Amino acid sequence: MTKADPTDPVVYQHRLAKQNQYSPPSEHFDSSRYASVCTICGTSVSNSSKHCGYCNRCVERFDHHCKWLNNCIGHTNYAQFTMLIGSLEVMELIIFVGSFWLLIQYFTQKDWLESHIQEAYGANIVELVFSCICVQTLIALLILIAIGNLIALHLWLRKCKKMTTFEYILHLRNHRNNTASSTGKTTFLSKIRESNANLSDIQLLMPKRENLVRKCTQVMPEDKAGESSHEVDETIRSRSEEEKVHVG
User: Are strands 50-52 and 43-45 parallel, antiparallel or unpaired?
Assistant: First the structure.
């Protein structure tokens, strides 16, 4: 999972075209087919892509950035992510059931348990083993509940809401902002949340290509107003480099 690459494939295709790996570039890659452009990567992207500030790359169908895996979860590796948390839930369930069964044996068949511990460790440390089993059972139960809640959340979002985690967060944020605007109340905590959101999400929504092209053509001389799409892409790329400096 940590080595899985969820980067939008359109980004790689556009970069190859810029490096003249395609000859001519327009024969294999037409940037005008994509309505969105990442001003940080300086390439065209899919409409569902989002630029992750942690990984510094555009992720197709971005769901969330997992700090435990040190990787983004998107269209490419979402199935692997669900299998991972599903297998983790099964493993914790087995640990919990086994630990709980040993606790039952301690209270119902303590002599049998003592004999097995004596045979395995060569010492009568039943109380120590009992303490470790209690801690292990509690930890397994907590992880079981946490992972189960995560699985339930993803099932609810994907099956019922037809949304990704990131889309759901944006939905909640817009709802909170609309509620605050309607009541006219802005708390200090809401300002902190808004500031942190802007820091963590360098680019929430991809700008539309047509808007960038319009901005570029407005500053071009009249004799260049009819330049090709490839030349417009170069202008967008140069303007993207300027934005990188500001973002950095």
Answer: unpaired
Of 58, 66, 132, 216, catalytic: 66
pTM score of the predicted model: 0.68
The amino acid sitting at 123 is: A
Q: Is 134 assigned a catalytic role? A: no
Q: In order along the chain (248 residues), what is the average pLDDT of each group of 10 residues? A: 81 80 60 82 86 90 91 92 95 95 87 80 77 92 95 93 90 82 59 49 51 49 47 56 48
- Angle at which helices 209-218 and 229-247 pack, to 10 degrees? 100
The Cα–Cα gap between 248 and 246 comes to 5
* Token code pair at residue 104: 């039952």
